Amino acid sequence: MKNIAAQMVNFDREQMRR
């Protein structure tokens, strides 16, 4: 479950970088 949170944060960060 912790992995999902990390993936969600990474996804948000990647989208913000774009």
Topology summary:
Elements: H1 2-17
Protein name: Replication protein RepP
Structure description:
- This is Replication protein RepP.
- The protein is rod-shaped, with a radius of gyration of 8 Å.
- The protein has 1 helix and no strands.
- The longest helix has 16 residues, at 2-17.
- Helix content is 89%, strand content 0%.
- The chain is mainly alpha-helical and 18 residues long.
- The model has no long low-confidence stretch (mean pLDDT 91).
Order of helices and strands: H
* Termini separation: 26 Å
Morphology call: rod-shaped
Unreliable segments (pLDDT under 50, ≥5 consecutive)?
none
Task: Summarize, please.
This is Replication protein RepP. With 18 residues, the chain is an all-alpha fold. The chain has one helix at residues 2-17.
What distinguishing features does this structure have?
18 residues; mainly alpha; 1 helix; rod-shaped; Replication protein RepP
